[in-house]
């Protein structure tokens, strides 16, 4: 005698057919969220590097040469650390969490007379990320010589009013 | 031969259907929460970027000669005031410097969430799409010789929603450059030699 009910195999096939698209949607949502976090980390890295370029955009060509000489890029790490140390405690830990994807030390490069234009320099700052993919930002500048810049202010970096 | 469905089959089918619905609901809740967190996190970055760009745009054009006179940072750094040169009108010898202030104001529904307010001669304006938890502004002098007089260090703790979801903390150094006054030129009057 044959019964007209469902067989276990039929039910399993039906479940498999239903679960396939469901798992695909789950995968899409998960990868979308992961991409969002990766882009956020990339944005943070770019914010940090652009910010450092802003600091050095006003420096003289002699200072930029010194900054980009081998072993001097530690100053950038020091700058970032100084700024973190000036933050209130609750923001300090949060900011450290934001920049957790940035690892290693900064790398700084200066290309002078870019495209054959006298006085035009390209300052490039890059930093490794936890993903292994470095992030690089550059800025074209026309720095003045140290002699043409105003005298140093009386207060050092870190002072505020 | 029976063509119907037995009670056991119905129970098994109902159980499997319940399992499927339960799995869907769990996934919906888990991944809905994950994607909501991701969106709020992005919105928090957006809040910080908007606030920083508004302040940067004004600071680039601010009237600045000396920090003590041309810059006010009230409320322990939670606000910023300066003057902004207005467009030249009919009289080319007169430039009006309009006071501009940035400060935080609490969102009525939530005591820990603030909106950024920009106040100028036209009145107060809420910067839309920008929810902040904290804003700290400091004036920082450059370390060595620099073409900049100083920097405004703006630290912003952004939020994704007015309810306080999503967090992002960013810090920005905005260069401050002194306005160079053009040399005064003697313009001879009519009939003068």
Describe this structure in words.
The complex is a heterodimer of chains A (161) and B (193). By secondary structure, chain A is mainly α. Chain A has four helices and three strands, in the order ααααβββ. In chain A, a hairpin with a 7-residue loop joins β2 (121-127) and β3. Residues 154-161 of chain A have low confidence and may be disordered. The longest helix of chain B is centred in the first third of the chain and has 55 residues, at 7-61. At the A-B interface, α1 and α4 of A face α1, β4, β5 and β6 of B.
Oligomer, anyone?
heterodimer
* Main β-sheet description of chain A: 3 strands, antiparallel
- Average pLDDT reading of chain A: 80
Compute the number of strand runs of chain B. 6
User: Span from first to last CA of chain B?
Assistant: 125 Å
- What low-confidence regions of chain A span 5 or more consecutive residues with pLDDT below 50? 154-161
Described by strand count, sense and barrel closure, the largest sheet of chain B is: 6 strands, antiparallel
Number of strands of chain A: 3
Strand order of the largest sheet of chain B: 1-2-3-4-5-6
Helix content of chain B: 25-40%
Classification by helices and strands of chain A = mainly alpha
**Shape, principal axes of CA atoms of chain B:** elongated
Biggest sheet, spatial arrangement of strands of chain A: 1-2-3
Helical fraction of chain A equals 40-55%
Report the radius of gyration of chain A as a whole number of Å: 27 Å
Rounded Rg of chain B? 29 Å
N- and C-termini, Cα separation of chain A: 94 Å
Structural class of chain B: alpha+beta
Element-by-element helix/strand order of chain A: HHHHEEE
In the predicted model, the low-confidence regions of chain B spanning at least 5 consecutive residues are none
Query: What is the overall shape of chain A?
Result: elongated
